[in-house]
Amino acid sequence: MNKKTVIVGAASALVIGVTATACTGTHTSSGQAQENQQQKRDTTSLVQNQPIPGFNYSQLRQNLKEIETAEANGVQTTSFFFNQGVQDPISSCPSIGAPIPTTDQLSNPQQVVTGTHGSDGYGIATTGQMDPTGVYTGDSSGTYVMCVGADGKAYADYWEGYVQTVFGNATWNKATHQVEMQGAPSFAFTKSK
After folding, report:
1. Nearest CA among 125, 105, 107 for reference residue 115
2. What does the pLDDT read at residue 82?
3. Backbone angles phi and psi of 156, in degrees to 5
4. 40 burial type by CB count under 10 A (0-12 exposed, 13-18 middle, 19+ buried)
5. Which of 37, 62, 105, 163 has the most CB atoms lying inside 10 A of its own CB?
6. What are the pLDDT digits (tens) for 110-141?
């Protein structure tokens, strides 16, 4: 075997090795592999020695269930509309349920799309999906409040400032600059087990 054949053979082996490594994914350095193994040992040790607690009852879960029930049932609330930096609300209204962020929607804002990715095959990605109204949801600090007018009919009040809503009839006390409940709450929340 001559010197030229050995060099060509070695170069070919190097190209095949690099190509095989590129095709099968990334190579992890031995230092990174050691760090990954140590992190795995640390995590296993912590989970075994300090396991996540388990509870038979959660007050947080109970109250969240109750809040969602009250929101779904549209209980009577009172909402106050604030401007940042201003102590008193600019308005208030008897309302139904909790404020609704303008970014809430009934349909999924994302859709999965597949397509070809060069000659390698198919790729999967997510992209925006329009609402049933034909528009795309954007970022917003806006809030809808379902107010109840003097005639007893509901109307939507849109506000981009802060909104405080309490579950019951309430008024604003100008002397103390606080919300004051008037009578019993409109929903029976659990205080504790």
Report:
1. 125
2. 94
3. -90, 135
4. exposed
5. 163
6. 888 887 666 666 678 888 887 777 777 778 88
- Chain segment 53-78, per-residue pLDDT in tens: 999 999 999 999 999 999 999 899 99
Find, among 97, 101, 95, 74, the residue nearest to 147 by Cα: 95
Question: Of 152, 150, 187, 148, whose CA–CA distance to 166 is shortest?
Answer: 187
From residue 122, alpha-carbon distances to 37, 115, 117, 125 in Å are 33, 5, 5, 10
What is the maximum alpha-carbon separation in the chain?
Answer: 102
E-assigned strand segments in the chain: 76-82, 91-101, 110-116, 122-128, 143-148, 154-159, 162-166, 168-173, 178-185
Sign, CA dihedral 134-163-158-168, equals positive
Q: Give residue 148's identity as a one-letter amino acid code.
A: V
- The strand pair at 91-101 and 168-173 is best described as unpaired
Would you say how long the chain is, in residues? 193
Extents of the domains making up the chain: 3-49, 53-101+141-193, 104-138
Is the alpha carbon torsion for 32, 37, 41, 47 positive or negative? positive
Task: Say what the pLDDT of residue 120 is.
Answer: 62
pTM: 0.62
Which two three-digit tokens encode residue 61? 């879960």
